[in-house]
Amino acid sequence: MNMARNMPDYDSLIHEKFSIKENNNENIENIMNNFLHTKYGEFLSIDKKSIANLGDVNAYVDACIPESNKSFDGDSYLTILKHVFYLSMDINEDICTVHAPAIEIAENRIKNAMQIHYNKNSEKLLRAGFDNFAKIPEIKMSATPVIEILRVIDEKGEVILTKNKKAELKRINYFMEFSDTGLFNYEEKYGKVIIKPSEIYDNVKKNYGIFSYLLREKSEYFYNMTSIKPYVRAAYSYYYFAAISRKMVNIGTVEMIRKYVDISNKKIDLVKFQNYLYELFDSGVLNKRENKISGNSDIFNAFINK
After folding, report:
1. CA–CA gap between residue 38 and residue 57 (Å, rounded)
2. Cα 101 to Cα 88: distance, rounded to the nearest angstrom
3. How many CB atoms lie within 10 A of CB 34?
4. CB of 215 within 8 A of CB of 133?
5. Overall pTM surpassing 0.85 (yes/no)
6. Three-state DSSP class for 227?
7. Which three-class secondary structure state does DSSP give residue 132?
8. What letter would DSSP give residue 89?
9. Which helix (DSSP H) or strand (DSSP E) does residue 203 occupy?
10. CB contact set of 264 (below 8 Å; sequence gap of 6+)
11. Nearest to residue 157, comparing CAs of 188, 122, 201?
């Protein structure tokens, strides 16, 4: 991706001048890194591969966030957030000027990048533990239109929906989200949509279960449902610590609550969170031993290896 010669539309900028003896990538990188460390902190650095000289000099900034896992006897770990924002530099003879987003803007970019990182890993966890998550009643309830159609298909071999009926059109639009899974054949005749199982339907049903399979194949779609997301985030509040420790760990509810607040970026309802935990225990996504919480080894291995 080519970077523009001018800075993006940051609302506020920082500008600082430096002397530069030689106009080469190494000197440019050093100046930009020193600027970053002075203004924002040691956890930021220039992606040296991204330095582009387009009359002005541009370079992307990476953030390396240190994770604390000393409680679990794990190795140190860094979360790498790539290209959270970028700097621009003007060079005029032996003077260069660095242009960068104001500190509060940079902080917001980092927070947003961290949130994207959490969401991406949470969605990956849903994909890793799809079969267990599918057992949670509230998650099934969130997918009621899918479950209803699957039941009709299993009973009658097909389902016929009329496009000029509002309720059925809603079901059609909902179900078309799964048209790329290969599980169904669709045919439209005289204002009606006919949905039938494909040749792989029975085999998938035997080995996974249709809803479980859909949860895996369309994990991003399901994860973004308001009623499903809290369960996955609550589970990731545990698997986050397991991932940074690179092993199964036993943690307390307090640690999970603290991480859940980070992941969800909002205040926590303790009663609801406790209910999420109960459902995660019942479905086998998590396990509880005495006063500590542990994970499912199959989900853990699938999660860290995906």
Report:
1. 20
2. 10
3. 12
4. yes
5. no
6. coil
7. helix
8. E
9. helix 201-207
10. 230, 233
11. 201
